[in-house]
Amino acid sequence: MNKKELNEIKKNFSDDSGLFVINSFFSAFIDPEKNVKYKMTKPYSIIADDEREVITDSLKKVLTGTIGKHLVEYEFPLECFEEGRSQKLLYDLVSSKMKDEALIDAFLEKITTNIDYAASFTILTAHCTYSIMRKNKNDDDDPDNVTEEYNFIVTAVCPANTNDVGLFYDEETGTISKKANTEMIISKIPTDGFMYPVFSDRSPDVNHVMYFSKKADKPNISIIENVLECVFVMSAENEKARFQQVLNAVCSDELNYNVITQVNEKIREVVELSKNETESAKLNDKQLKHILSDAGVSEEKLQALEPAYQQIVGDTELTASNLTENRTVVATPDVTINIKKDAASRLRTSSIEGRNCLIIDLDDPNIVVNGLPAVLK
Predict the structure, then answer these.
(1) What's the farthest any 2 CA atoms get from each other in the chain?
(2) Overall number of domains in the chain
(3) Which of 215, 199, 197, 216 is nearest to 207 (CA)?
(4) Residue pLDDT, tens place only, 302-357
(5) Does residue 179 fall inside a structural domain?
(6) Which helix (H) or strand (E) covers residue 102, if one does?
(7) Looking at the structure, do residues 213 and 152 belong to the same domain, yes or no?
(8) Over the Cα atoms of the chain, what is R_g?
(9) Do both 79 and 143 map to the same domain?
């Protein structure tokens, strides 16, 4: 599922879209001990408008974020289509349009038994249908050519807790006092979620599922491995960490300021060139070798790149956007300097009178220190 296909579903994920409808809705509340305290299934059309708006907003959040960071597509292992396994259960839920209570109970048990979640949480799941309009010769939607329905489910896992709402004003008594709150407040923003099947080549792909994590660097691996039964792949933070390990293994003694900033800039150029592409730009060991060479790493060091990459990363390609920094941060034990992406070339390293120095070129001699204009001497 690429960016274009994801955007197509997000754009139409609304009650106002004539191509999209939520058919049925399921929700459940689970306490920290994994007890199901409440569950409900009903046709979406009979839910009150204000409640439907909140539900739709929460479910749509599962489709937000960057593919490769917040959204990661997983392929089911072959055995997952066996009876009682994750893919078969999800497939049957979609096929039944979530009207089979036994399947819903099995789905709920699959989540509550296998999820690692410390606090109370709510599960929101909807069965949706999107009518796919085929494209005309100009690649525009053809409203007279709806050839297929894309049926899918979206699940959002939303945390719930009692919130200390502090002081409040009581208009009847004319007093201000602390309000005691015992009701569980369900967050509108899910921490995790998934969409099945994915929308690939503008058709359902039942062999893949899209997992969402609010925090790209902290995916809930229990959902990926135990609920969905997929093989966990590197998170964005993992990719960056392994990329840095490769650089340290190959050319640590050549990683000066210029090389590091040049590598970052060249990878950003790769990302920029692919911004209008449907797929996120990827880098393998050969492409990375070319980038390091252009940044000034010696050919002698680059001979070690391929074996180091294979040992640390393996055969996987790295997502280019996960490897870049928007700011250059230069840190010593006593000083940290944050440099905007377009200003990295203004800083240089040098040795002056035997001392290692950072030199900042100032195009504008006017500087501000602690909010006050300062003179340069």
Answers:
(1) 81
(2) 3
(3) 197
(4) 999 999 999 999 888 898 988 988 888 888 888 888 888 788 888 888 889 889 88
(5) no
(6) helix 101-114
(7) yes
(8) 26
(9) yes
The pair of three-digit structure tokens given for residue 76, joined into one six-digit string: 């089911």
Say whether both 30 and 52 belong to one domain: yes
pTM over cut 0.90: no
145 membership: H or E segment, kind and range: strand 141-161
Domain that holds residue 61: 3-160+188-233
Question: How many H helices and E strands in the chain?
Answer: 10, 20
Q: Which residues pair with 212 in a beta bridge?
A: 71, 193
Residue 252 dihedral angles phi and psi, to the nearest 5°: -60, -35
CB 211 within 8 A of CB 228: yes
What's the gap between Cα 356 and its chain centre?
Answer: 41
Total count of residues recorded for the chain: 377
Tell whether 275 and 228 lie within a shared domain: no
User: Rounded to whole angstroms, how far apart are CA atoms 203 and 201?
Assistant: 5
The verdict on 227 and 369 lying in the same domain is no
- Looking at 252-367, list the stretches that DSSP marks H as alpha helix, in order from N- to C-terminal side: 257-273, 285-295, 299-302, 305-312
Burial of 107 per CB tally in 10 Å (0-12, 13-18, 19+): buried
**DSSP-assigned letter for residue 46:** G
Name the strand (E) or helix (H) holding 103: helix 101-114
Integer Cα distance of 69 and 71 in angstroms: 6
Torsion, CA 287, CA 291, CA 294, CA 296, rounded to 10: -130
